[in-house]
Amino acid sequence: MDVALSVISLARFQFAMTTIFHFLFVPLSIGLGLIVSIMETLYVLKKDEKYKLMTQFWGKIFLLSFAVGVVTGIIQEFQFGMNWSEYSRFVGDIFGAPLAIEALVAFFLESTFIGLWMFGWDRFKPAIHLVLIWITTIGSALSALWILAANSFMQNPLGFIINSKTGRAQLVDFPALIKNHQLWLEFPHVIFGAYLTAGFVVAGMSAFALLRKNKNVDFFRTSLKIGLIVGLITTFGMLATGDQHSYALEVDQPMKFAATEGLYENVGGKDKQQPWTVAGLYNEKEHKSIFEINVPYVLSILAHHSLTGYNKGANQVNKELHAKYDKKFGKNMNYYVPFNAIFWAFHIMAFAAGGFLMVAVVGLWFNRKKFADKELLKQKWLLWILGLCTFLPFVANTSGWLVTELGRYPWVVYGYLTIADAVSPNVSAGSMLFTNIVFFLTFSLLGAVMVYLAARILKEGPDDLMTQTAPVQDPFAEEAFN
User: Fold this and answer.
1) Contacts of 416 (CB under 8 A, 6+ apart)
2) Considering the chain, what is the average pLDDT of its residues?
């Protein structure tokens, strides 16, 4: 067995596992921050206690997701030093600035104000308390911005030089790092995805509560409405930003684009249409299609906003990459990405977006104020679909990240550092396997606890929030000893 290959495979699996699990909760916490902010805004404007209860109820889920996201994020960062030390040495000067800003400004802003918000219900006026949650929401978005600035450098390296003595990348143009067009394609797409995730989680959990014939019908019907409105608006945002992102891939990472569309061979031409592959299966050893279901003209419309167009297939792109990089990386490099995985991940993401759009429209139609109490509860099929949509955003988000990261193969930093050159040289396969097992069990436990607590909160409903509780007193106050 090739031990070096085992280390690389295990390191890649561990980072993928950590990233995917971490990214289950990051979009949820970012999105729930917005929804809770909207609910509290409605409470301040309308003076309706129902919205305060909704803010506090969904705030519990928000705090749970925030906590798990922080824990898994710390584990993820440790891997840079443990498993990918060569990568850390190469990009350390680049990543230092955005990650420091993220930690010292965005995360501290977010974590400080979330604490003030959580414990400040009876200590601040409603308008001031509302400002606290909005600052938290803005802080979470800024945190994502700086993390994605680092990731965008990996996709499209800019603003640096290679130190001839150390072989490391050095940042020489910080504004270029921020102006990177990949960042401004990734950031809105990820943010819309986070808001979409929270919207459908709130709608889906509300649907499950209504299916259980929960007595708080108006509470969960209103929650469902807010979730679907946010979900509908952000689905349009996802489609628009996804279109622009895919459009840019044709130039920045043509191999990734070819895989998303199932193109091993060149397609289209100056006066020719391009069919879109709805479903397909590919022979990755021989680099050809096994079967495809195509729809004429659709790829031309999606990729070029026209009825005609031309795109290079993976085989043509592979030749061009060899011509460009053989002197640096050798003739034996494999530039083909995992074709089937990227093709289906991209299509799952695309089909999910269409599904979200239809479900949101139908859900809002049956949840109209005029008919909601009579009609919505009768539509068991719709409530079940909405309930299952609680989980679909996580599948779509994971698919999106698989496209983003697998499509960069064989590089960690596109065009400059390969995966094989980025892994830690002194890590053994045995230690890597052990940490994989430990991390998997840890993540499974965290996930199970998160799901259990969220389900228990949903089962209890907002009833406990309606109960008047005694104010918290200082245990060391004079009256406590009387």
Assistant:
1) 90, 157, 162, 169
2) 89
Query: Which residue, chain included where needed, has tokens 């044709």?
Result: 250
- Sorted by sequence, the CB contacts under 8 Å of residue 103 that are 6+ apart come out as none
Q: What is the rounded CA–CA span in Å between residue 127 and residue 123?
A: 12
Q: Which pTM value belongs to this model?
A: 0.91
Sign of the CA dihedral with 257 first, then 232, 198, and 210 last: negative
Q: 444: Cβ–Cβ under 8 A, 6 or more apart, which residues?
A: none
Gap between the Cα atoms of 284 and 290, Å rounded: 10
Give CA–CA dist 458/206, Å, rounded.
8
> How far is Cα 353 from Cα 234, in angstroms, rounded to an integer?
10
Structure tokens at 52: 């305060």
What distance in Å separates the CA atoms of residue 394 and residue 53, rounded to the nearest whole number?
26
How far apart, in whole angstroms, are the C-alpha atoms of residue 190 and residue 183? 10
* Separation of first and last alpha carbons in the chain: 75
Least Cα distance to 151 among 400, 472, 425, 432 occurs for 400
The better pLDDT of the pair 266, 376 is held by: 266
The answer, yes or no, to whether the previous bond of 188 is cis (omega within 30 of 0) is no
Say yes or no to pLDDT of 219 above 50: yes
Distance CA 143, CA 246 (A): 24
Cis before 462 (ω within 30): no
Give the pLDDT confidence of 316-326 residue by residue, as tens digits: 999 999 999 99
- What CA–CA distance (Å, rounded) separates 283 from 459? 48
Pairing outcome for strands 411-413 and 417-418: antiparallel
**Are 231 and 196 in contact, with CB atoms under 8 Å apart?**
yes
Tokens of 11: 């390191």
What does the alpha-carbon distance between residue 464 and residue 332 come to, in Å, rounded to a whole number?
65
Nearest to 101 by CA among 150, 169, 29: 150
Report the alpha-carbon distance of residue 147 to residue 177 in Å, rounded. 12
Torsion over CA: 382, 193, 11, 14 (sign): negative
Q: DSSP character for 106?
A: I
